[in-house]
């Protein structure tokens, strides 16, 4: 492969003087999932997590030469002031050029890549290298670009609105970094980009990652089909897990939470398995990751060694995960479509905490007892059908939905087929937002579109029915405050 061009002196965040008796600094991870992916995030996280453990400058130098280089900071001016700690923008692209035909079919990876970002995350590593904060930025976030040059045509464009993931297609890594900095006022120190291939290979070299789910997860688009319980996922299955956005009613927001859980599990696997202390195993994992990673020229050998040394005492409890607070779902923009608009007040507080190198959550917060939805239950009419032979199940589901505010008919009926194992929400595609709100109240339920059904939604209660969860409408100014530590997101 061609020689790596000389890179400028590495930019390093100042390190505070060592405290007496302080333990070796542990950073957090740099990984990545796209984006749709948090996958790549997960991946890149491996780059940092696996970026060494003091196994020798010569080995890491050879790995450094495998990294493809980009210059996302070229000619950038008027950037945010540098804060404390280090901020890495992890970007997962949907590149699939090196995926085999058999893998495309098995893991539903057909179609043409969109040349956009599937997953976008800011990974903040504290100045003392004892904490990592991972903030997911939804791909459909409403964004406004600064003035820029189109990556394809070379034409200069004034700033304009778009979905955040489209910035990559229009202006590559540079426009992506500039757009994120403009939106967050957080200075990005390093850029890491991963694709499907490196993610799958990394998970396989690690021997798989364990994921837990309390509810069945099924997505016909990606082929994901998980029963409740623990699952050890290899690369292909892990890719399905982090890509799925139709496994429940929460769409892309639910996918980001699963991506965060996967990142936590990946860090746990990498730090608890002895891989960071095994030079040969580390080399295999690092090569799998770095083979299709792109990074800025300032992220090199010294940075890898610095992070690796701190990584030795890192654990899932050292990390925290959250999604930028959303103020408005379904914010429609002409010629762009439906976007997600950030909560201006809550997101400002979140990014201020990153700039000031503060934990995002001072103490673990109670998990929300309600599910956020777009359409209030009072506007949703529901007919309940008992899809089992369990007497009284239809009445129980009808009453529970009515208590949660849904406009049930009060007259549940018996379904033609009484062998339903899973609860199903049947809906007319024209009322898809209402269907998602109803499905959010029925954990683990399946969404099934039927054209011509009309405004009354149907719930076929299956043998898996346990409870109806309360829902709340997300309004501008509201946010889901959940910040989850890595050890809270894992199987334990």
Fold and architecture overview:
The protein is α/β, with parallel strands linked by helices and 492 residues long. The protein folds into two domains: 39-366 and 484-489, Aminopeptidase, CATH 3.40.630.190; 375-473. The protein contains 13 helices and 26 strands. The protein has helices at 39-49, 57-64, 101-106, 166-184, 196-205, 235-243, 251-272, 279-290, 301-311, 344-355, 393-403, 432-440, 486-489; strands spanning 68-70, 86-93, 117-125, 132-136, 142-144, 148-149, 156-157, 161-163, 190-194, 209-213, 217-219, 224-226, 229-233, 294-296, 319-323, 326-333, 337-342, 371-373, 381-386, 407-408, 413-414, 424-427, 446-449, 457-461, 471-473, 484-485. It has an eight-stranded mixed sheet, with helices on both faces. Strands 19, 20, 21, 22, 23 and 24 form a six-stranded mixed sheet that branches. α1 (39-49) packs parallel to α7. The longest helix has 22 residues, at 251-272. The radius of gyration is 23 Å and the shape is globular. Belongs to the LytR/CpsA/Psr (LCP) family. Residues 15-27 have a biased composition (Pro residues). Residues 117-270 form the Cell envelope-related transcriptional attenuator domain.
CATH architect. name of the largest domain? 3-Layer(aba) Sandwich
Q: What ranges have pLDDT less than 50 throughout 5 or more consecutive residues?
A: 1-56, 362-368, 476-481
User: What class, by secondary structure content?
Assistant: alpha/beta
Number of domains: 2
- The shape, in one word, is globular
Strand order of the largest sheet: 1-14-9-2-3-4-15-26
CATH topology heading of the largest domain: Aminopeptidase
What percentage of residues falls in helices of 4 or more residues?
A: 25-40%
